[in-house]
Amino acid sequence: MKLIDGKKISSDKRAEIKEKVAKIKQQTGKTPSLATILVGGDPASRVYIKSKIKACEDAGIKSFHYNLDENSPQEEIIALIKKLNENSEIDGILLQLPLPQNKDAQECLNTISPLKDVDGLHPFNAGLLNLSKSWNEIIEKNILVSCTPLGVVHILHKSGITIKGKTAVVIGRSNLVGKPLSMLLLANDATVIMTHSKTRNLKEICKSADIVVVAVGKARFVNKDFIKTGAAVIDVGINRTPEGLCGDVDFDAVKDMDIEITPVPGGVGPMTITMLLENTLKAFNNRKR
Ligand SMILES: NC(=O)C1=CN([C@@H]2O[C@H](COP(=O)(O)OP(=O)(O)OC[C@H]3O[C@@H](n4cnc5c(N)ncnc54)[C@H](OP(=O)(O)O)[C@@H]3O)[C@@H](O)[C@H]2O)C=CC1
Ligand SMILES: Nc1nc(=O)c2c([nH]1)NC[C@@H]1CN(c3ccc(C(=O)N[C@@H](CCC(=O)O)C(=O)O)cc3)C=[N+]21
């Protein structure tokens, strides 16, 4: 087993971003900025938001945080987003998901200005990703794509894992992770198989893959039976268990195989936040303010 060090790849990229931010400040006198919105007080979401704010600070990106009450009506969330859309000082807006019950997340996301949509969840950006024909096009056009999928592809590139021509199986089809990730792998010329809870013969399908990305949200879901020798396994899952934080892969069960694998913690998680910083810079550049 070869461990893929997401933390190291992430900190290298953050150092690059920090330099870029310093240059922008020097050349324009402006500071790229991110607004984060948390509705309610879900403990896991609080932890993520805290790391996001800390990462912004470390990189020299200005951050503004808004914490709305659990019971705030949807109109209040939308009104805040509209206010942030109009605030020329703010480059990126991140609405932390999931929202408390009885709120329509997509409706809120639809009101974020596509230019400030650092999670790439506005239909306009999701559409641009869909229409893109290559990875180069996505990079050159500065398309805003969901941070976790971007992080996964960055990890693959930095680890020297070829994507072109490979069979990649993605487990999970959420709008935040599985679906945009499948589009990114496709743009990188993989043969992509998208799988989900209704997929039959999941083990066999995964066993045929050169690259397996798991984003299901079930602790130790993937075991030896899913993985072929020589495969790259990217574990997106974050599960809090009595024994601590763990991914969707049963790490102990596969660790003796001849594979490359990202650990949890220290794999995809840190990259997600790094890509949020990168997307904030993209938003700054796209707005040319
Ligand atoms: N490391 C990071 O930076 C991030 C980690 N995460 C973590 O990744 C995981 C997934 O997140 P997210 O995509 O938002 O989760 P969702 O709950 O939105 O999606 C889960 C997906 O898994 C599929 N699924 C559920 N059960 C099975 C099964 N038995 N077999 C195959 N597929 C199944 C679902 O299928 P169906 O569509 O049919 O219901 C669904 O598409 C979570 O653990 C989350 O915490 C999320 C974001 C960032
Ligand atoms: N609009 C929106 N955008 C998101 O990108 C988003 C979201 N909502 N909702 C929740 C998920 C989850 N997510 C993570 C971010 C960082 C780590 C992370 O840093 N993980 C560390 C461990 C952190 C810990 O100890 O909990 C690691 O894996 O090493 C994990 C998960 C972003 N998400």
From TrEMBL:
Species for this entry: Endomicrobium trichonymphae
Protein name: Bifunctional protein FolD
Pfam families: THF_DHG_CYH, THF_DHG_CYH_C
Binding site for NADP(+): 172-174, 238
HAMAP family referenced in this protein's UniProt entry, alphabetically: THF_DHG_CYH (MF_01576)
Domain Tetrahydrofolate dehydrogenase/cyclohydrolase catalytic: 4-119
Family the UniProt entry places it in: Belongs to the tetrahydrofolate dehydrogenase/cyclohydrolase family.
Catalytic activity, EC: 1.5.1.5, 3.5.4.9
